[in-house]
Input
Amino acid sequence: MKRWIPQVVIVGYLSVLMYGLFCHALYYKVNQHPAMYWIIWDMYCGWSAYETRNHVIGEGESGQYYQLAPGPWGSFKPHGDAERRHYDYTGLHSVRLALNTLRHTEHEPMARLLIVEETWPRKYNLSDELWARRYTERKDKQSYYQMRGIYTPDGRLTHEWPSWLTRVSQECVLDNPRLLADMKKGRPFYAVEPGSSRSRVVPTAYELPTAQ
Output
C-alpha cells in the first residue's frame, strides 16, 4: 500500500502540470481561479532584466516642477523597499496619487501632470562587493527616462506612451528588414495591451528636466 501512495502523488502532480500547459497553450480558463496562477507557465512572465521606477510630477503655471508622489505625509511601501507608485507598471493609476497630493496641499495652479518612467539594467542593483566579484568593468549605472503620460490638472489624459520594454520590443521589430517586409505583406491589425483599451504610441526617449 505504501508504494501506490507516491505513485498517485506523481501522477497527480504531472497531470496538474499538463493541464496547466494545456490551459496556457490554448489560453483556456487561465483566470478561472486564483489557483491557476500556480500551474500556468506564465506565472513569472513579468520578470525582466530592467528595473523601473515611476516619477509623478506636477508642472506649475510658473514653470516650477513639484514632486507629487510620495506626498508630504510620507510614503507607503507595501512590499520591500519600493514605494506604492512604482507598482503601477501600466501607468494607469499614478495620476490618482498626484491628484490626492494636490487635494491635500497648498500650491500654485498646475499647468499639467507628468508621469515619467525611469529604467535601468537590473544588474546594477548588486552591491559594490558583489559587483566587484562578478564584473571587471567599473559600476556605472545609467538610467533611461521617458514619458508615460501627460494629464490635465484635473486628471484627464492627453498623451500616453508605452513602457520601456514595449517600446524596445517595437523598435527591434521596426529595425529588422525581414520583419518589416512581413508586416507589409500581412493584414493591418490593432495591437491592444491586456488591461487597457487605449491606443499606445512609440515615444521618443528624453531626459527628465531638472526640477526647479
Observations:
- Strands lie at 50-60, 65-69, 110-121, 144-151, 157-160.
- The helical segments are 4-26, 94-103, 128-134, 164-174, 177-185.
